[in-house]
């Protein structure tokens, strides 16, 4: 205490708190548990990465395709009528990708991403415009040949064929994709 009768802050605090009793804990209350995130589709990502890697590999087996040549492919085990129906436009086109003006590496990536997106959206038939290759000088239609090769390498491609003239003719293909 000071000489003029004032109490120190500590003494005042203790006086004020002398009747206070501590609360008894009734049980520890934990904060609510945060919801668990949805599981990651790691296998699907691994499969997509594998397909992307395959597509990005340089493959010297480029088929010599001509500017006006029709492209056509039917996966083993598929019936020929599926290709006929595809060629005649019996499947609704659910997506389209235009590769005009892209370099080969950019086109590879764009095609892989487009086809993966088609699967996510459950698109069965898509149109890919590769161009006729008229501006490729003496090399012929570069992207046309590459698209032919890349599509044949994918397990999810059941069939593809050049479109009718009204949809791009020999400068585009209809692609039929598997359901899963």
Count of helix runs? 5
Order of helices and strands: HHEHEHEHEE
- Cα-to-Cα separation, first versus last residue: 85 Å
Indicate the low-confidence ranges by residue numbers.
none
CATH class: Alpha Beta
Q: Can you tell me the number of structural domains?
A: 1
Query: In one word, what is the shape?
Result: elongated
The percentage helix is: 25-40%
Proportion of residues in β-strands: 5-15%
Give the helix/strand class. Answer: alpha+beta
Q: Count the strands?
A: 5
What's the CATH architecture name?
A: 2-Layer Sandwich
Q: How many strands, which pairing sense, and closed or not: the largest β-sheet?
A: 5 strands, mixed
If strands are numbered along the chain, what order do they take across the biggest sheet?
Answer: 1-4-5-3-2
What's the rounded overall pLDDT mean? 83
If you compute it from the alpha carbons, what radius of gyration comes out, rounded to the nearest whole angstrom? 33 Å
Q: The CATH topology is what?
A: Ribosomal Protein S8, Chain: A, domain 1
């Amino acid at each position: 205490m000071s000489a003029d009768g004032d109490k120190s802050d500590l003494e005042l605090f203790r006086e004020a708190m002398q009747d206070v009793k501590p609360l008894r804990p009734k049980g520890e209350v934990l904060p609510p548990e945060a919801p668990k995130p949805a599981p990651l589709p790691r296998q699907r990502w691994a499969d997509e990465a594998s397909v992307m890697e395959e597509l990005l590999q340089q493959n010297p087996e480029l088929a010599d395709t001509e500017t006006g040549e029709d492209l056509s492919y039917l996966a083993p085990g598929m019936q020929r009528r599926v290709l006929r129906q595809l060629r005649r436009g019996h499947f609704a086109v659910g997506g389209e990708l235009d590769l005009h003006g892209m370099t080969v590496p950019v086109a590879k990536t764009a095609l892989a991403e487009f086809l993966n997106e088609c699967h996510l959206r459950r698109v069965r038939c898509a149109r890919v415009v590769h161009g006729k290759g008229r501006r490729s000088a003496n090399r012929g239609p570069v992207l046309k040949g590459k698209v032919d090769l890349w599509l044949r390498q994918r397990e999810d491609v059941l069939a593809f064929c050049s479109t009718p003239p009204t949809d791009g003719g020999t400068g585009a293909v209809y692609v039929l994709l598997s359901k899963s």
